Amino acid sequence: MMRSMDAMETEINLRDDGDGEDDDGQQTWKTQLETVLEEEEEEDLISTQSDTKLLINERDPRQINECLKVSFEDVIAEPLSVRSGDRVWIWSHALFEVSRVWFYRIITLLLAVPVSLVTGILFAVLSFIHIWLFTPCIQIVLINTGWLQTLWSSVLDIIILPIFQSMAKCCSGISVVLTRE
């Protein structure tokens, strides 16, 4: 959404001996509104430009895989009563981290593209089925059974509701008192 407001530069004299000043002795500052408008225009440009670009640094923005943040201490822990040697613990920790990272990289190198292709096709097929089959079928059923919905709500209002209201009034007079003997 582009705004067609011309930003006007406003000069504010904030003269102080320690401030850096222009040649004429005044310092120009942009108004807060102008700064906000420029930031919104930058965001608009970024949002239209980055819709198709991959976000390399933020690969899980919705925190879908929070459960996979696993560290060595989450998997292997020695209680105080049973301990291995310090060097065994250090080497185990190092091997765990290195093997986890490198095997993940090797597996993703081999399988990430084919699995992405298969899941993309699967989601495309599911979207097609949902959009072009399920939704029209449900709409056909809802359109053709509108009279049934009206009939059912009438039955509930005329027959079922009064029965349950009268049962509630009958049961509302019952009180239970518990005494300990």
UniProtKB/TrEMBL annotation:
Residues 1-28 are annotated as: Disordered. Its main location: membrane. The chain crosses the membrane at residues 109-134, 146-164. The keyword Metal-binding does not apply. It comes from Danionella cerebrum. It is found in: Cell membrane; Golgi apparatus membrane; Membrane, Caveola. It is a peripheral membrane protein. One of its GO terms (cellular component) is caveola. Belongs to the caveolin family. GO terms for molecular function: molecular adaptor activity. InterPro entries: Caveolin (IPR001612), Caveolin_CS (IPR018361). May act as a scaffolding protein within caveolar membranes. Interacts directly with G-protein alpha subunits and can functionally regulate their activity. It holds the Pfam family Caveolin. This is Caveolin. Keywords: Cell membrane, Golgi apparatus, Membrane, Transmembrane, Transmembrane helix. The keyword Transit peptide does not apply. GO terms for biological process: caveola assembly; cell differentiation; regulation of cytosolic calcium ion concentration.
